Amino acid sequence: MFKKILIANRGEIALRVIRTCREMGIQTVAVYSTADRESLHVRFADEAVCIGPPASRQSYLNIPNIISAAEITNADAIHPGYGFLSENAEFSRICADYGIKFIGATAEQINFMGDKATAKATMRAAGVPVIPGSEGLLDSVEQGKELAKEIGYPVIVKATAGGGGRGMRIIKDESEFQKAWDDAKMESGAAFGNDGLYLEKFVEEPRHIEIQVVGDQYGKVCHLSERDCSIQRRHQKLVEETPSPIVTPELRERMGQAAIKGASAINYEGAGTIEFLVDKYGEFYFMEMNTRIQVEHPITEEVTNFDLIKEQIKVAAGEPISGQNYTPQRYAMECRINAEDPANGFRPSPGKITQLHFPGGHGVRIDSHVYAGYTIPPNYDSMIAKIIVSGQSREEVMTRMKRALQECVIEGIKTTIPFHIRLMDDPGFKSGIFTTKYLESFDFGGL
């Protein structure tokens, strides 16, 4: 087992990893930018190293500085958390070159899944259902038009290196194709330095369902059931729940086995997530694989009583997986609390938290790195806390979540709490029948 782990991240996920390491008797090293000097992960780690100024590219994305921090502290492993360098194949490779264990996927596995066209081809070969579309990248707009005629409109073009909805365009008929193509190439080239595009059939009335998987170094893979991530705004998740209201036992079994096939096809090591779109007919299609821990992993932990961070560390240390395929017996939901103003287009709201009270009670868990007096920097993601609740039914969970949200006091900044409270009372959300487009017609006025 590792003696010392450096956490190459910040905020609540860094704190989350530190907690598990402490329970396992493993020393921790925090890295931080000058903007995060007063963050709790810096205070609670055994050691802390400043790796640069506030800009991410000069600190949390600065591989030489992070490797140097690991070397001077004699860390024998690095946990990347999520975001930043967590799915950076070059970082995984460099860690291996320096004899530091990267707690996550290998460079080869990340490369397999990091390029969407390659990932789709890999999954198709493994027998995982994929959305009809191009076999790889499109060579020309004419090729795209011909394929769209074959599979039928509507279609969607996507950036192969994309994320967060950038480099994506829905095309309803051929007259829209040229402009959508040009816009997507320009946006993806500017955002990712790669303007490669592929085309898919556009899935109607989709739900975003992901399967949590864990694999070890000995070829074994298990799944820990699904999470429903359909409540999104501009492709950014706001609420996640498990089990999904629309997943039947039969569908869960098929999706779980497909996820295991997909992860096994690349000999996957560590915790990862196979993400699917489920259409209005109940058919599911591979969307992408996240080769890292997810923001929403706590809801799976709550219904399985299974520490996913601990499992990541054990698998990285060469131990076989201890998990098994799981059918949920309880319900859990997570609301992401962001420093944003939902009444004004979710405008970022960095600044000093003057008063803070987090909720508690049975079935309530808070993952956060903020405290009264903490100043939220404007340089990073706006998520400041996750409220996770669990219970015996979806109705109980929604009632408990509303109570927890109403109990939560964060003053000095705007947060997404008013939106979440309204959502818990929303008839459409309560029904469990909604799509990834649900918030496009949601009333955000007066929050």
UniProtKB/TrEMBL annotation:
State the superkingdom.
Answer: Bacteria
Its keywords, alphabetically, are: ATP-binding, Biotin, Fatty acid biosynthesis, Fatty acid metabolism, Ligase, Lipid biosynthesis, Lipid metabolism, Magnesium, Metal-binding, Nucleotide-binding
- Which intervals hold domain Biotin carboxylation? 1-444
Q: Which SUPFAM superfamilies match?
A: Glutathione synthetase ATP-binding domain-like, PreATP-grasp domain, Rudiment single hybrid motif
Enzyme Commission numbers on file: 6.3.4.14
Keyword hit for ATP-binding: yes
Main enzyme class = ligase
Q: Does the keyword Lipid biosynthesis apply?
A: yes
Catalytic activity as recorded in UniProt = N(6)-biotinyl-L-lysyl-[protein] + hydrogencarbonate + ATP = N(6)-carboxybiotinyl-L-lysyl-[protein] + ADP + phosphate + H(+)
GO: which molecular function terms? biotin carboxylase activity
Q: Name residues in a coiled coil.
A: none
Q: In which pathway does it act?
A: Lipid metabolism; malonyl-CoA biosynthesis; malonyl-CoA from acetyl-CoA: step 1/1
* Any Pfam family the entry gives: Biotin_carb_N
Domain ATP-grasp: residue ranges: 120-317
Assembly and partners are described as:
Acetyl-CoA carboxylase is a heterohexamer of biotin carboxyl carrier protein, biotin carboxylase and the two subunits of carboxyl transferase in a 2:2 complex.
Please describe what this protein does.
This protein is a component of the acetyl coenzyme A carboxylase complex; first, biotin carboxylase catalyzes the carboxylation of the carrier protein and then the transcarboxylase transfers the carboxyl group to form malonyl-CoA.
Show the NCBIfam families listed in the entry: accC, PRK08591.1
Protein name listed in UniProt = Biotin carboxylase
Q: Which organism is this entry from?
A: Runella salmonicolor
